[in-house]
Specification:
Length: 125
């Protein structure tokens, strides 16, 4: 995990530490054997995406104190499941992504060109 690569082929950067994200809750969209959801897309969530994912049974906006989860609000960055991001893309609700903090394994679910079309960072231009 220490040498994880992003979709651009460089070292995986931190997605967010406030709130603390990542499957391993280390701020990075790293993945491993136990991450069956492939939480590898660093996205800046939008109101539209939060509503979309809530309608599909994954409420990311409601706090869950027992899990130390504050609930997300528009503008927060979070490591999303690659398949959910792809689903949101197909529905027209995909949030913008941070390419430098999106794990290379996201490319197993979504193309680099699709990610670049929704990129926040300069490499997406």
């Amino acid at each position: 995990m220490a040498n994880s690569k992003n979709v651009l082929g460089t070292e995986l950067e931190t997605c967010c530490t406030s709130p603390m994200t990542g499957f391993y809750r280390d701020g990075k969209c790293s993945t491993g054997g136990g991450d069956f959801g492939a939480h590898v897309v660093c996205a800046q969530v939008t109101e539209e995406f939060l509503e979309f994912t809530k309608q599909r049974g994954n409420d990311l906006s409601t706090p869950l104190p027992g899990f130390n989860f504050p609930g997300l609000k528009p503008g927060d960055r979070w490591c999303l499941c690659a398949s959910r991001w792809q689903e949101a893309l197909e529905a027209g609700a995909a949030p913008p992504v941070v390419l430098s903090a999106t794990h290379a394994s996201a490319l197993e679910y979504v193309s680099l060109s699709e990610l670049k079309q929704h990129a926040l960072d300069a490499q997406g231009a």
